Amino acid sequence: QVQLVESGGGLVQAGGSLRLSCAASGRTFSNYAMGWFRQAPGKEREFVAAISWGGSSTAYADSVKGRFTISKDNAKDTAYLQMNSLKPEDTAVYYCAKHREPWSVRVGTRLDDFGSWGQGTQVTVSS
């Protein structure tokens, strides 16, 4: 069974940067699109960014477009989320997720596109 472990969260001032990592177990990481979602207190989990299995296509929520960058290193079985120009409204628990289907044509932006989830990492942005 695939395990996803996020790291890199923390406390940062507004305008600062963080890079989240998502390490995946298993030998088929390169075959799957990956996504990042976040959940703030009292709110539903929402899409942040996703990347295709080969890394050539990406998708972003409008709220993070131009500030966040998703990437994946298939040699290291790791996905990343580089977050720049952070705002207090970016405060949330961030989750990485693996797409349900290998070699998916669609990158995936819905919760139910993804079948495996990490435990989450807290990102707090102070004003």
Bin the strand percentage: over 45%
Helix coverage percent of residues? Answer: under 10%
Terminal Cα span: 40 Å
Structural class by sheet pairing and helices? mainly beta
- The whole-angstrom Rg is 13 Å
Mean pLDDT: 96
Number of strands: 11
Which consecutive residue ranges, at least 5 long each, have pLDDT under 50? Answer: none
Helices and strands, in N-to-C order? Answer: EEEEEEEEEEE
Give the oligomeric state of the chains in this entry, treating copies of one chain as homo and distinct chains as hetero: single chain
Largest sheet: 7 strands, mixed
How large is the count of helical segments? 0
The best one-word shape is globular
Structure description:
This protein is 0% helix and 51% strand. It has 127 residues and is mostly beta strands.
Write the layout of secondary structure elements.
Elements lengths: L3 E4 L2 E4 L4 E7 L7 E8 L6 E6 L6 E3 L7 E6 L4 E6 L8 E11 L11 E4 L3 E6 L1
Structural descriptors:
7-stranded mixed beta sheet, mainly beta, globular, 0% helix, 127 residues
Gist?
With 127 residues, this protein is mainly β. Helices cover 0% and strands 51% of the residues.
